[in-house]
Design a protein that fits this description.
By secondary structure, this protein is of the alpha/beta class. 29% of the residues lie in helices and 23% in strands. Strands 13-12-11-5-2-1-15-14 form an eight-stranded parallel β-sheet. Strands 16-17-18-23-20-21 form a six-stranded antiparallel β-sheet.
Length: 437
């Protein structure tokens, strides 16, 4: 499938375009900015762009007003259709953020309930109790998402709600030719709805990709044959940066063995999990790492482990951003133009190496060598073997192990490596070593 051989590039459109924090309905045409970044995306080598919410909403995008319209702060449907056309012409797939668990208080059907109360044709689209009052003094109570009452929970057991959402998805496919969806808070979604969505999108467009946000628990709860293709791998997200910050590679090694190791009980060998080192909800990689010298190692892990890698806009050149209580604005800035520096060049190499490697896209995972500060693992498929070698400390280390061959090519540098007497791991290094056959 195309998504297993693609690196994703995630954009939070409202931040990317510098949109005002509240939607006053004033029309702008900022989403066309994305087309000016196409050369940067091509240089980086990514294969798909994941757009976080860009449909009409009250404020941050996850509080939708209308699933059929592009947010006025970003542009028109025609503007985004042209963006998608140009992305597709450049060989890039387009994936949207599907926010189906909840809507904003400005959602048209909820406004009808506020106006007509028990007489509203849409009162059963939500979980409403007319014998109680809401935090906003509506004269009725409703369920909000995890206690956030600016986000009104949809009733996905209601046939009309599901039909409306599926019709909207069909409209996005027809109007924008999208190639997939990220399902927001998929861990709360109705299983029946996800099964229905999978069946619907399979019929709408072959190889349509469905990926769900999953914070914890068993990813197989949503990533399975009849539901979603993939789930966000928060376990390895935490393990990657934490292992570097604590100089304890045993943490990420444990997760990788548990998820992808060679044993029969391994959990996710057959599931292409969605990997990342940061996103729109968490502190950026350059800010979460305690040692800046570890940034290339962090990205080496991202592009070396099994699954689908995703890069968050701006982080490829080391942009910083701290998650703050009550506001994610610092994580979602507007950059005038992309920056292509040394970190960017390193990540480019990693993306292009992965693009051309069956072992990195589909191969098995096996741990080869492990200490607190050093880590070597192998990816292998159809005779292609690549060793990923990491040294998180400031001094050189010699790793001794049985590699079943003594020579390799470092794909990042082009240099030949002979480690019959041990593999040299330079200080603060990551190596992609293709074993010679």
């Amino acid at each position: 499938m195309w998504y297993q051989t693609s690196t994703f590039y995630q954009i939070y459109p409202l931040g990317f375009c510098g949109a005002p924090p509240q939607n006053n309905g004033q029309q702008h045409h900022n989403i066309t900015k994305a087309t000016s970044w196409i050369p940067h995306l091509q240089n980086l080598g990514v294969g798909a762009v994941l757009f976080n919410p860009l449909l009409e909403s009250d404020a941050h995008g996850y509080d939708a007003r209308d699933f059929t319209k592009i947010d006025a702060r970003l542009g028109t449907n025609g503007d985004f259709a042209e963006v998608c056309r140009q992305l597709h012409a450049a060989g890039l797939r387009v994936v949207l953020d599907g926010v189906f668990n909840h809507v904003g208080r400005g959602f048209w059907a909820f406004l009808d309930v506020q106006k007509n109360r028990q007489n509203s044709a849409y009162k059963d689209w939500f979980y409403i109790d007319f014998n109680r009052d809401s935090n906003y003094g509506d004269g009725f109570w409703y369920e909000g998402w995890e206690g956030h009452f600016e986000l009104v929970k949809l009733n996905l057991n209601n046939y009309e709600v599901v039909e409306h959402l599926l019709n909207c998805v069909a409209g996005w496919i027809k109007e924008f030719d999208i190639d997939g969806l990220r399902l927001d808070v998929a861990y709360t979604l109705n299983e029946g709805f996800m099964r229905r969505l999978r069946h619907f999108t399979d019929a709408q467009k072959p190889e349509f990709f469905l990926m769900g946000e999953m914070l914890h628990g068993d990813y197989k709860n949503i990533a399975q044959q009849e539901m979603l293709h993939s789930a966000t791998n928060y376990e390895c997200y935490k393990g990657m940066y934490s292992s570097l910050n604590t100089l304890n590679f045993f943490e990420i090694a444990y997760s990788l063995n548990r998820q992808f190791g060679p044993e029969d009980w391994t959990l996710y060998k057959e599931i292409p999990l969605f990997n990342f080192v940061d996103n729109h909800d968490v502190t950026r990689a350059a800010s979460v790492l305690q040692n800046p010298a570890h940034l290339p190692l962090l990205y080496g892990l991202l592009f070396g482990i099994p699954g689908i890698p995703c890069v968050y806009y701006g982080s490829e050149w080391g942009a910083q951003g701290l998650k703050q209580q009550g506001s994610d604005a610092s994580l979602r800035p507007s950059f005038e133009a992309p920056i292509e520096n040394e970190l960017f060049a390193t990540i480019c190499k990693m993306v292009h190496i992965r693009n051309g490697s069956g072992a990195l896209n589909y191969g098995s995972y096996q741990q080869i060598y492990l200490t607190n500060k050093q880590f070597v693992f192998q990816r292998q498929k159809d005779g292609e073997r690549i060793l990923l070698a990491f040294n998180a400390e400031e001094t050189e280390h010699i790793a001794h192990f049985n590699a079943q061959a003594g020579t390799a090519v470092n794909l990042l540098t082009g240099a030949k490596v002979d480690f019959g007497g041990g593999l040299v791991l330079p200080p603060y290094s990551v190596q992609f070593l293709q074993m010679e056959r």
